[in-house]
Amino acid sequence: MSSGVVTVGRHTYAVGLYWENSPGGGRVSQIAKDAAKQPGQQADFFAIRPGGKSGGVPQFGLCSGDGGQTAGMPALAGCLASQLPGSWAGAFRLNEGVVVIIVRDDLIVPDGDLFFFEEADARDRLIQEMGFGGLQTVYAPEAWSIPGADSIPITLLLNDRADIKLQGVSLSQKAKLGIFAGSLVAVAVIAALIVGGGEVTNIATTGQLPPPPKVFVPKPMPEPVYIRYWEEKPLAIDVIRNCSEGLVKVPTAVQGWKMNKVSCSGVGISVTWTRTKGSTEPPDGAVVDITGKNASKVYRLGSLKNRGREELLSFNEITNRFLRENWPGTLTKAPDDPPPPPPPDWDGEWNPPPAPWQKRAFNMTVSYLPGDLTRIFENLPGAIINNMTAGSGTMSAGWKVEGVIYEERK
């Protein structure tokens, strides 16, 4: 999964942006700039999808320029989402790779602007999103044989739309010099008026010095209200147990079929198979593609409740636990969450400090579920599991576990 630039028709488009909803009304640009400058984010460009007259929520997307993106380049997901209303997901083959775009209720989901070099990874991501339900339309290449999917080319869907464009987060050097020069001229004119006549006139007519200038004291910035995202997710240990217990629903072997991949997000288990023999019955309840060679099924799991109020551990406590318990994986710094928006009635400068917490991403591998995961995640606050995937699809050759851990900012 990456970001960069792709070509569709006559235009080059930026892909791989991170999208956020913005309640800031006409201040979406400033909110986007503030989000781009947060520690761990440091985006170079932002793009805006206006809310429109119908009352829709505006959005902004952030990206760096590492993949060749430049100011003025249209953002593919933003343009396509504005062209196609509703809830839909699509995977589109392009010369540079495969783009996957996910839109729900007219809004691009935060991780719904994806670019893949590997077609298999793009297909897996699309199938996973389909498993969550709620999509009105699915677009996919015909060769993927996804039941009910529309294979209409992206050029026809996009219709050359290119109005959602990248904007630079910082002013160019030329613009900065222009503003600086204008400021010098303004200061010189004001000084000339005071020294050349304004002050003398006042003394001559009133015999008094002019009143001291009024000092502008800005209103204090209101206290930002940070969103405690981990408290809106189920406990990691509950996700692990839900997936582990749910595996009893998945057949360990189906005659004439080979299991390709098993993944679990906590709310469902997604499984894909490939047929290995001729006349064989497909897995019970699975959807078979038009070639008859591939099958897939999502096994629904019981719902999980959000964890609620939960205090975090310090950076050192998490690190020491990682080393002491010898976790079977890695911890890496993850980007901070976007800053909270200003209050609706605030019209001043909005530049909140970083939240009092940070997060690290983890990537672990265990032989089976739940395995060592119970020991690792029991009583570990701030941990969120995003996905668990069986390496070879056999459910017994190793599980890859991915997620993040929120911790107090060091």
| Biggest sheet architecture | 8 strands, antiparallel
Number of helices: 8
Tertiary shape: globular
> How far do the termini sit from each other?
29 Å
Portion of residues within helices: 10-25%
The number of strands is 18
Adjacency order of strands in the biggest sheet: 13-14-12-11-17-18-16-15
Radius of gyration: 27 Å
Beta percentage is: 25-35%
Mean pLDDT: 84
Poorly predicted runs of 5 or more residues: 171-204
Order of SSEs: EEEHEEHEEEHEHEHHEEEEHEEHEE
Structural class: alpha+beta
Annotate the secondary structure layout:
Blueprint: E1 4-8, E2 11-15, E3 18-21, H1 28-36, E4 45-49, E5 59-63, H2 76-83, E6 88-94, E7 97-104, E8 107-116, H3 119-131, E9 137-139, H4 154-158, E10 167-168, H5 173-206, H6 236-246, E11 257-264, E12 268-275, E13 287-288, E14 294-300, H7 315-324, E15 329-333, E16 357-366, H8 373-377, E17 383-390, E18 399-408
Parallel strand pairs: 6-9
Antiparallel strand pairs: 1-2, 3-5, 4-5, 4-10, 6-7, 7-8, 11-12, 11-17, 12-14, 13-14, 15-16, 16-18, 17-18
